[in-house]
Amino acid sequence: QVQLQESGPGLVKSSQTLSLTCTVSGGSISSGSYYWSWMRQPAGKGLEWIGRIFVSGGTNYNPSLNSRVTISVDTSKNQFSLQLSSVTAADTAVYYCAREVVRGVNLDYWGQGALVTVSS
Amino acid sequence: DIQMTQSPSSLSASVGERVTVTCRASQSISSYLNWYQQKSGTAPKLLIYAASSLQSGVPSRFSGSTSGTDFTLTISSLQPEDFATYYCQQSYITPYTFGQGTKLEIK
Lengths: 120, 107
Prior knowledge:
Oligomer: heterodimer
Number of helices of chain B: 0
Mean pLDDT of chain A: 96
Radius of gyration of chain B: 13 Å
Largest sheet of chain B: 7 strands, mixed
Strand content of chain A: over 45%
Structural class of chain A: mainly beta
Low-confidence stretches of chain A: none
């Protein structure tokens, strides 16, 4: 059974960089059958797709965040990571990592989510 | 970006009722439409992918259909565990986008 788990600071100061890691267990992140994705959800609001990475290192980002987002992968640790720079209060949200099936084009496994609060 | 518009935004229904949620895409997305269920405080769960394919382990009372750029999620007979928020998501092109959600509440 594949499991994903987000980890990282729950509190980040405004203008600094938010960093989260997603650890994948029960399967290899090096599989060519999946993308590895990040989404976020502000309290009481809907879901926003942030971006994704393939094992080769190829990435796609949401243009609304493009200049501030970096997603990277560490196959030796079976992890992938999100960095979001120059954060503001508007970046306060629950951040989810998920696995996207390449052929099915759906997000079939999700982490439990990590709340990140941006403080002034 | 492709806009996904869900309706209704909220819905009250009783156990045993048949319920329908609709999602409309702002342009053609073929069948690249997924449905997720999210219960309070938990991550979304994939229910339906490719508009009408049932994810493994999801009860058969859930079904999906499509007509052009309109997509429908149907729950044939509501069960107590189905009260949650439902989201559609287009996976036709990045940036992937979600509908605003439909909150299904107990009547």
